Amino acid sequence: MARIATWNVNGIRARHAQVQEWMARDRPDVVCLQEIKATTDQIPAMLCEMEGYWCYWHGGKGYSGVSLHVRQDFAAARPLFAHPAFDFENRIVTAAIGDLTVASVYVPNGGKDFPAKLRFLEALEGFAREFHDAGRALVICGDLNVARTDADVHAKERKPRAIGQLPEERAVLDRIVACGLVDVGRALNPGDDAMFTWWPPWRQMRERNIGWRIDYVLASDALASRAIRCAVQKDVGTSDHAPVLAEFT
What we know:
Layout: E1 2-8, H1 12-26, E2 30-34, H2 45-48, E3 53-60, E4 63-71, E5 80-82, E6 92-97, E7 100-106, H3 114-134, E8 137-143, H4 167-177, E9 181-183, H5 184-188, H6 205-208, E10 215-220, H7 221-224, E11 227-232, E12 244-248
Helix pairs in contact: 3-4
């Protein structure tokens, strides 16, 4: 059994207690966090010293940032943490855990620089293709800032020219998935048109479940075939995103 989780926390300093409580309760084997908005020396000490986890933080002051946390009984030795060459603004970190590589990814929103978003997505596609061509297991977790289809956006939020719903970015995300990956959440819940992971932070959108699905667990075919559950934990925390927890036999 393996449990792999992802969560855009929208500021680790504001939500460190929530992250600790969640991890202590659910004990995921691998945790990918995004939008930590903190440098290493700004991370609360208790998170850096979290019992039972290897931790790696990759952030900058007040903006972006990702991290990876691996249970020590899932990886006996500290994993090799690394950053692909296309990393910028602290948006991706990987961990090699035996034959498996897990990537925590925070794709740019694209509102200020849409071409940069497309370049990042295209580089992520090349990264995924390298693993596929080499026959290596990969899991990409994180806030990819793209809703794959209209079914991944509440009807009231569907806007044909909204960034995050544009055909060109959806096409790149589909090509990433086509690199031997499976969108685990959708594969296990193919008809669920109310499965959202992010909600606009106004007008009680979360309570009304008027949101978008933009946070994913994308797993290599062999691992995905062992997936038994992939749940959006809508009631966890006060970020505008919810954690996603995937379980594999």
